[in-house]
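User: Can you model how magnesium ion sits in this protein?
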Amino acid sequence: MIKGFIFDLDGVITDTAELHFQAWKNLADQVGWNFDREVNEKLRGVSRMDSINIIRAHNNAEVDQEELIELANKKNAIYVESLNQITPDDYLEGAEGLLKNLRVEGFLVALGSASKNSTKVLQQLQANKYFDVIGDGNSVSKSKPAPDIFLYGAEKLGLKPEQCIVYEDAESGVDAAKAGGFYAVGIGPKERVGHADVRFDTMKEATLFEIKSKFNDLF
Ligand code: BG6
Ligand code: MG
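Assistant: Here's the modeled complex, given as structure tokens:
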């Protein structure tokens, strides 16, 4: 029986994925590194330090840990500044409607994001009211594809993984949900999230009505 929902943030609730891209691109240009949308795709759902390591490796650059942290901090400052432009109009289409319906129907809802900036993003969207539990990059140490962030959310909601549906736009996020024994809804193309239990191209299609019909015997 499904009693709760756990949502990834970036690329599911709002399109911060684009702002992450812009901030990494800005940093890469300053450092003289190559960085494009293809490399950016590998960063979806991946923690900040893992992300900079992927970009560094892509450029065959040797950078010591201290400098790498400095560069990641620099990117984060650019990213955090760009979050100021987010308003309550910036939910991905369908996301706020779904969160509202979950409230109306009494489901428990948690955030399960790898981001350490989720507080700021939720504040900009005025989305805190839709969540019973906030799990983010500050809540656990092992990031996706480890299931820890979703297990944290489920535990705080007082639910078992098999009572929760996880929404994810990242390959590593769907891996994490499956590793934890959750039902996974993938948002995005088949090549990225085709291994989820159910997949939709965008949040617009991933309504509660659709979820109930796809996971029919679980409601
Ligand atoms: C994830 C994003 O939600 O959060 C990643 O998909 C990002 O792209 C990660 O790197 C960490 O975010 P932050 O805000 O802590 O740098
Ligand atoms: Mg995401």
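A couple of observations from the model: The pocket of 6-O-phosphono-beta-D-glucopyranose (ligand 1) is lined by residues 9-10, 20, 43-48, 51, 76, 113-117, 137, 170 (CB under 6 Å). The beta strands are 4-7, 108-112, 133-135, 164-168, 183-187, 198-200.
User: Helpful, thanks.
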